[in-house]
Specification:
Elements (H helix, E strand, L loop, with lengths): L37 H15 L3 H14 L3 H14 L3 H5 L10
Helix pairs in contact: 1-2, 1-3, 2-3
Length: about 100
């Protein structure tokens, strides 16, 4: 039995298919909210990479560790976000335990 392939159609109406648009949810599943991120984080991570090269992620991790133990939580989150932007696996490997005592 021969197999025949039909040409793909870019117009769904000409293909006899009627599409209906699904309603968009108010909050998308991949919406990250108003946390750390965006263009500012991207530019900071790229500048950090330009300065430190392939060791930029570990330098960001070291800066996050220093900020954590100094009790600077905003700075800690910023450096961990830069570290995650440069190497996705590193922040999970070095995340500090909840019972660690940063100095305040």
């Amino acid at each position: 039995m021969p197999i025949h392939f039909a040409a793909a159609s870019s117009n769904p109406i000409s293909a006899g298919v009627h599409l209906r648009r699904a309603p968009m949810p108010l909050n998308a599943a991949n919406d990250n909210g108003a946390g750390i991120g965006g263009e500012a984080l991207l530019h900071a991570a790229l500048r950090h990479f330009a300065k430190y090269g392939l060791s930029a992620a570990s330098h960001a991790r070291d800066s996050a560790e220093e900020a954590f133990f100094a009790g600077r939580s905003d700075e800690y989150r910023w450096w961990m976000a830069i570290c995650a932007a440069l190497d996705r696996r590193m922040p999970a490997a070095v995340a500090f335990r909840r019972d660690a005592n940063p100095s305040r």
